[in-house]
Input
Amino acid sequence: MKAGGWRRAGTMYRAGDAWETLAVELPGGFRNHRTTVVWTRRLLDPAGFLAPSVYERAEQMLEQLSAGQLEKWRAEKDRSLRQLYRNLFAAVVAPEVSVEARRAAYELMISDPEDALPEAYNNLLVLYLDALADLDRASAFLPIALENAPRNPLIYYNAACLLARTGDVEQAIEMLGRAKDGGALTPSLVEKAAANPDFASICDDQRFGAVLGEKD
Output
């Protein structure tokens, strides 16, 4: 076994056909069994060991949210967990999906950083910040989002929103600058930022206007 665990559990054969069993398809998600200690603990918890895998949970969630996206997924040539997440992401952004269902989907999409969907980190941060209005949860999640999706410039914009609301002026302006450097501050977003109540604590700071490109 390679250090760090298997990507695949192996190849299985029946009647001349072969197929691969992905790690995530095994009970409980095989990545949870990488170390003897964790594996032994799960054996002592049969319910946890035999719980649906991440793969199965994502399929079940997709089936509940969108039959169309489920059929599209079943027709995909790429049947990886990442592609399954992309179909789930397309389904969960529909306006009729409840906040709770959206939260559960995003949290599932980032449950294993190796297969996590980068866009889900940003959307989950926004959901904690706005839809749930849970600043404590958003603040706790922010370092995770920044670490795992550093190339998504919108992460920095939404981080600035959060930090401005919690009174961290210096960090808020720094994050807004990083969002600008990453190309997130399109003209439409600059217009929204100028009127965004999240920035009430920094809107009079000259640096805020400078980042937005406002003229005196």
In short: The CA atoms of residues 7 and 23 lie 6 Å apart.
